[in-house]
Structures are given as structure tokens and as C-alpha cells.
From TrEMBL:
Taxonomic superkingdom: Bacteria
Keywords in alphabetical order: Oxidoreductase
The organism of origin for this protein: Leptospira kirschneri serovar Pomona
Protein name: Zn-dependent alcohol dehydrogenase
Gene3D superfamilies in alphabetical order: Medium-chain alcohol dehydrogenases, catalytic domain, NAD(P)-binding Rossmann-like Domain
UniProt GO MF annotations: oxidoreductase activity
């Protein structure tokens, strides 16, 4: 009986190999099929080109810019969002020795020829291409990236920590930029309670800034701000009822919300001797000119993180100075995302993670 069974199994072996090859030629990804709608699609894998690696995505973090792209896609029906992620290299065109490494990626690929790129200031390259926007993003089982922009994770970091590095780098660099302008005894106002605002708060506190007021409207996020060490936390309407107390008070305003009309309403609180605004959301050139001419506002640099900042933030996580887990409000398997979009857009959350259930 055993011999007959063996003869029966032998012809099946090549068939199973064929099935495995077919399965490995495809992956699943979340594609924006129309404004505000993601769909799980099965897509054929693309062969690698020079300098490219294929990464098996373990975790993607949802960023506010991803949500904007989902609502206003530039390439509907084919666009895959996502740029904050971590995973494992499973294939390399040039360098087989890096296969198996845990990595994340600097999500803006510069031209590598201009002066900015030579200094690894890839954000400033005018020819850069961004993951999830110009290039296909990380809301997928696999992603192809240029190996020259990969960042190897410290051995002790897990994939969730790796996926949140880019987000944390925004706050890390913001605190460095603030140091160029003011001393730790300055009065700082953070407008907004979103993930960006909380990252800024975290690293400002670490730099020794203690006189920080944050205004917002979401309980979970404001509770997080309290645990991080903000001196005062107010709801928006409470703040605007305290015009006498905050008149001519703040030296720096970190503006993280997308409602441009609010910033001019804050003018009563500007320190008329010196007021610097860090726009951690987009402020139009017209509004910046108005604030500059009318109130003497100067603008600090935001969204300016460097390639090397990733390694500095990794050290802070590894040393225990930064606790990533307190940022995570929700985890969703990639297969469930199309029916869980309200969770992605829920502004009461801090960071939502998309998990590759097949990793």
C-alpha cells in the first residue's frame, strides 16, 4: 500500500512546485479605486531593475497625507498609498547579502546627483519622487524600492517601531530646528492634537522645553499630550476665551492643523517682540505673506528631517527614551481595511497600523 501511495505522490510533486511559483508571482495590495475608497487587489509582481530591492511589508502606519491622497487620488484605479512602513528584504537585484534584513525606507527618493542629494538632504531635491504619491506605496504585501534609500533597523527594534520611525523623525527634526531660534524657557503653543503635534511635543519635552501649551479637541489625543508632559492642555474654545491671559504671550507657534483661517485668529497671542511660526501643515504663500507683513511673523523650517535622523531616533527607541506603543491606537489587518476605512479616518485615534496578515 505504501509503495502504491508513493507512486501516486511522485507525479504530484512538480504540480505543487508549479502552484507555488504561480502564487509567488502575485501579491495583494490596497488600491485607491475612486475618491475615498480602497479595494484589495491581486497584482502581478514586477521584475526588479538595477538598484532595486523587493521588501515584504510587515506593518504600514497611516499618515494624514495618505488620507488626503485616498480622498484626492492623482492616479485612481492604480495608486497604492503608504510610505511609513517596515518589512524584510526578500529579493535584491544587485546585493544578495542584504536579503533577509529588517528595514524601513527614507520615503523620498532623490536624484542622487544634485548638491542636496550629495549631502543626503533628499527632501530638498527638486526631482525627488515620493512613495505613495509619485511611486507605489506600502499598503501592500510587497513593495519595490531603490536600495540606496533603505534604512536597516536595529536588531532590537520590532516592525511596528520601524514603521513609525519616519513619523517620529518629523518631531525629532522640528525640535532641533526650534533650538536654533529659542531657549528652553520660551513659551510655545502647539495648535492641534494630531499625531504630528504629539510627535513635536514629545521631542520638545525631551529637549528641555517645558512651557508648552497645546490646544485640541480629541480626548484620547489630549490625554496623550498630558502624559507626554504638556504644561497646559486646552480645548479650542477654552483657549479663545482666554485672550487676556495669552495676550502677547507665545514666542513660537507650531501649527499642525489644516484650517488656515485659524492662524490669523491667534494673532492676539503673538509675542510682538519675536514670533516664529513653524507650519507643520501647509500654509499658503499668501497667508504667510500676510502674517509676515501684518504681524512681523518669521517662519521656521518644518518637515525637514534628514536621512541620519532615522538612526538617531532608533537609538532613542532602543535606549527606552521613546516609547512607540503609546502612539498606537488601532491595528487592522490589510484584508479588512476596505471595510474599516472609518477607523483610518477617525480623528480621535493617534496612529493606526495596517498589518500584513500574510507576513
Amino acid at each position: 500500500m505504501a509503495k502504491k501511495m508513493l507512486k501516486f505522490l511522485i507525479p504530484l510533486k512538480p504540480i505543487w512546485k508549479l502552484i507555488i511559483v504561480i502564487v509567488n508571482d502575485f501579491m495583494q495590495s490596497l488600491v485607491i479605486i475612486e475618491s475615498g475608497k480602497l479595494e484589495l487587489k491581486t497584482q502581478k509582481l514586477i521584475p526588479l531593475k538595477n538598484h532595486e530591492v523587493r521588501i515584504r511589508v510587515a506593518v504600514s502606519a497611516v499618515c494624514g497625507s495618505d488620507l488626503k491622497i485616498i480622498n484626492k487620488p492623482i492616479r485612481p484605479k492604480i495608486q497604492i498609498p503608504g510610505h511609513e512602513f517596515a518589512g524584510k528584504i526578500i529579493e535584491s537585484y544587485n546585493n544578495k547579502s542584504i536579503v533577509g534584513q529588517k528595514v524601513t525606507v527614507f520615503p523620498m527618493f532623490g536624484c542622487l546627483q544634485c548638491e542636496f542629494c550629495k549631502n543626503r538632504d533628499y527632501r530638498d531635491c527638486i526631482r525627488k519622487k515620493s512613495l505613495g504619491y509619485d511611486l507605489q506605496g506600502s499598503f501592500a504585501e510587497e513593495i519595490i524600492v531603490d536600495e540606496r534609500f533603505i534604512i536597516k533597523l536595529h536588531e532590537k527594534l520590532n516592525y511596528e517601531e520601524g514603521a513609525l520611525l519616519e513619523h517620529l523623525c518629523c518631531g525629532f527634526r522640528l525640535a532641533i530646528e526650534v533650538e536654533k531660534w529659542i531657549n528652553p524657557d520660551a513659551n510655545i503653543l502647539i495648535v492641534g492634537d494630531g499625531p504630528m503635534a504629539l510627535a513635536d511635543l514629545r521631542f520638545l519635552i525631551q529637549k528641555g522645553y517645558s512651557r508648552i501649551t497645546l490646544i485640541g479637541k480629541h480626548k484620547e489625543r489630549m490625554d496623550c499630550a498630558n502624559s507626554l508632559g504638556a504644561k497646559r492642555i486646552l480645548k479650542n474654545d477654552e483657549f479663545f476665551n482666554l485672550t487676556d491671559e495669552f495676550n502677547n504671550f507665545f514666542d513660537i507657534i507650531i501649527y499642525t492643523i489644516n484650517k488656515e483661517e485659524i492662524i490669523e485668529k491667534l494673532s492676539f497671542s503673538f509675542n510682538k517682540r519675536k514670533i516664529i511660526v513653524f507650519p507643520q501643515s501647509r500654509i499658503s504663500e499668501d497667508m504667510m505673506n500676510t502674517l509676515s507683513q501684518k504681524y512681523g511673523v518669521q517662519f521656521g523650517r518644518a518637515f525637514a528631517y534628514h536621512f541620519d535622523d532615522f538612526f538617531a531616533v532608533m537609538e532613542l527607541i532602543q535606549s527606552g527614551e521613546i516609547n512607540v506603543s503609546e502612539l498606537i491606537s488601532a491595528r487592522i489587518n490589510m484584508i479588512d481595511v476596505p471595510v474599516s476605512l472609518p477607523t483610518l479616518f477617525d480623528k480621535s485615534k493617534i496612529k493606526t497600523l495596517i498589518l500584513n496578515q500574510n507576513f
